[in-house]
Automatic annotation (TrEMBL):
Gene3D superfamilies: HAD superfamily/HAD-like, Putative phosphatase, domain 2. It holds the Pfam family Hydrolase. NCBIfam families: HAD-SF-IA-v3. InterPro entries: HAD-like_sf, HAD-SF_hydro_IA, HAD_sf, PGP-like_dom2. This is Uncharacterized protein. It comes from Rhodopirellula baltica (strain DSM 10527 / NCIMB 13988 / SH1). It comes from the Bacteria.
Length: 226
């Protein structure tokens, strides 16, 4: 496996949900609430379809799956209300997050956020961290027209970093997100969690065990002058 220095990495883009924070657990609770209100069951299968998708596209999967007659905009607003009520009380960092952020800092590479989550929720989460000021950018689902697995998010991330996508390392936890990064041409590392271990991670550079995986850390240079 090539090192980050040998791949000439010049920047890093990070997904958020399921990679940096265990929000997939919260999304599952939201799905359960919404479906119970409608006499249906929220399943892992449905959650998998929704992962990585932006707002209306995500709830569209919910509507199609259960053939609901809900208006997508209204269902999204209801979902946002439930998620917002749960978020800060249920938010948990993924294992190894603090150490990974420190490794990014010591690498000297600029790094930013590229998440399908809505801007208003990112604005709730980032102030709870000690590293939000270190981010070179924060792209959200509100900043793209086409959500993952479309590569738009990561093409924009490379543009924010002012690098070629091939010079950018992307970390993703889901199949949809990894496909978006691979399609953009980025060096893609999948870091699946308990909700996404069954996903297909085709053409990724590495499937890491966690944010603490030494193989992931070795991709980063010690510093940009090394």
């Amino acid at each position: 496996m090539k090192s980050g220095a040998n791949m000439h990495l010049r920047g890093v883009a990070l997904d958020m949900d399921g990679l940096l924070f265990d929000t997939e657990r919260i999304y599952f609770q939201v799905g359960q609430v919404l479906m119970e209100r409608r006499g249906h069951t929220f399943t892992l299968e449905l959650q998998q379809k929704m992962m990585g998708r932006v707002g209306l596209s995500a709830v569209g999967q919910m509507i199609d799956h259960h053939q609901l007659d809900d208006d997508p905009v209204s269902l999204l607003a209801e979902s946002d209300d439930v998620y917002g009520d749960l978020l800060l009380g249920e938010l948990r960092p993924m294992p190894g997050l603090a150490e990974w952020i420190e490794r990014l800092r010591t690498s000297g590479l600029p790094f930013g956020l590229a998440t399908s989550s809505r801007r208003k929720f990112v604005d709730m989460i980032l102030p709870t961290t000690e590293w939000s000021d270190d981010l070179a950018f924060a792209l959200t689902g509100d900043d793209v027209t086409h959500g993952k697995p479309n590569p738009e998010m990561y093409l924009k991330a490379a543009d924010r970093l002012r690098v070629s996508p091939t010079e950018m390392l992307v970390l993703e936890d889901s199949g949809n997100g990894s496909k978006a990064a691979v399609s953009a041409g980025a060096v893609t590392v999948a870091v699946p969690n308990e909700h996404t271990r069954s996903h297909v991670f085709e053409d990724v550079h590495l499937v890491a065990e966690s944010l603490a995986d030494p193989r992931l850390w070795e991709l980063l240079p010690q510093n940009t002058n090394a």
